[in-house]
Amino acid sequence: MNEGDYVVPQHVAIIMDGNGRWAKKRKMPRTYGHVQGSKTVEKICEDAYKMGIRYLTVYAFSTENWKRPKDEVHTLMDLLRDYMKDCVKTSKKNNMRVRIIGDISKLDQDLQESIRTLEEASKENTGLNFQVALNYGGRDEILRAAKKLASECMRGEMTAGTLAQLDEPDFENYLDTRGIPAPELLIRTSGELRLSNYMLWQLAYAEFYFTDVLWPDFNKKELQKAIDYYNKRDRRFGGI
Ligand code: IPE
Ligand code: IPE
Ligand code: MG
Q1: Cβ(103)–Cβ(161) under 8 Å?
Q2: 20, 117, 149, 202 — which has fewest CB within 10 A?
Q3: Residues lining ligand 1, CB < 6 A?
Q4: Eight-state DSSP code of residue 182
Q5: Rounded to two decimals, what is the model's pTM?
Q6: What is the pLDDT of residues 7-50, one digit of tens each?
Q7: Catalytic residue among 2, 5, 17, 135
C-alpha cells in the first residue's frame, strides 16, 4: 500500500471458524455456538457496509462439513433455513443483495426454494453484496465450472476457436462467483491457518488475515484490525 492512503477492500471473504470451541469453553453444546455465530453474521454485514466494504462472502457450510455428526448437520441446515427466511426482511431493511455460492442442488428442496426466493427478492438491492457459501468447496466449484464448459462444447454451443481463445475472465463466468470481483482480503477466525477448500480460484492474490478470536466473538473492532493489517501489506502481484 502506498503510504498515506488508507484503503478499505472492496471484497472481504471470511472463514467463520470456531463456533464449536466457543460453545465448548462455555460447557454448552456445539450447536449453541452456531446459533451465536449466526447472530455475529448479521451484525458484521451491517458493520462491513458502514465501513465501506461492498462485497462480503462468508463460508457457512463446506462440501466437507457433511462428515459431521448427523445431529450437527441437521441443526446447521435448520439454522440456514431460518436464516434464508428471516433474511428476506433484513435484506430489504439493509438494502442488501444476497447470493448463495456452492452446489445447492444437494440441499433439501424447501431450502433450495427459500434460497431462490431470497435471491430473487434481493436482486435489485444496491447496498452490500452478501454471498453465503453453502455446500461450497473451491475444488467442487472449479470442477462444476469445467463440466459446464465441457457440456457447452459437446452440445456444439462453443467452437474450437472460441475455446482456444477462452481466457481467465471468460472462465470466471462459469464459476459461482460470476460477476463478483475477487476478494482482496481473507479473514479466518479461531487460529487455524488453512483455506479448507475456500474460494481457491478467487483468493489467488488475496491478503490473508488470521486471528485467534472465535467467530461468535468477532466484531466490528476485529474487522477494523483486519483492514488495518491489510493496509500494511505491500501488494506486488508478481511485480517488484
Ligand atoms: C465454524 O465453526 C462453522 C462451521 C464449520 C459450520 P466450527 O463448527 O468449525 O467450530 P470449531 O472449529 O469446531 O470450533
Ligand atoms: C471451514 O471450517 C468451513 C466453514 C467455516 C464453513 P471447518 O471447521 O470445517 O474447517 P477444518 O475442518 O477445520 O479445516
Ligand atoms: Mg472449525
Answers
A1: no
A2: 117
A3: 16-21, 61, 65, 76, 190
A4: P
A5: 0.97
A6: 999 999 999 999 999 999 999 999 999 999 999 999 999 999 99
A7: 17
Superfamily of domain 11-137+182-232: Decaprenyl diphosphate synthase-like (3.40.1180.10)
| pLDDT tens, position by position, 115-173 | 999 999 999 999 999 999 999 999 999 999 999 999 999 999 999 999 999 999 999 99
Q: Are 239 and 6 in contact (CB under 8 A)?
A: no
> To which H or E segment does residue 15 belong?
strand 11-15
Instruction: For residue 192, give the ligand 2 atom closest to its CA.
Output: 13
Strand pairing partners for 12?
A: 56, 185
How far is it, in rounded angstroms, from Cα 202 to Cα 186?
10
Each domain of the chain, given as residue ranges in start order, spans 11-137+182-232
Extract the C-alpha cell encoding 101.
Answer: 455460492
CB contact at 8 A, 133 and 65: no
Alpha-carbon span 227 to 74, nearest angstrom: 34
Active site residue 217: no
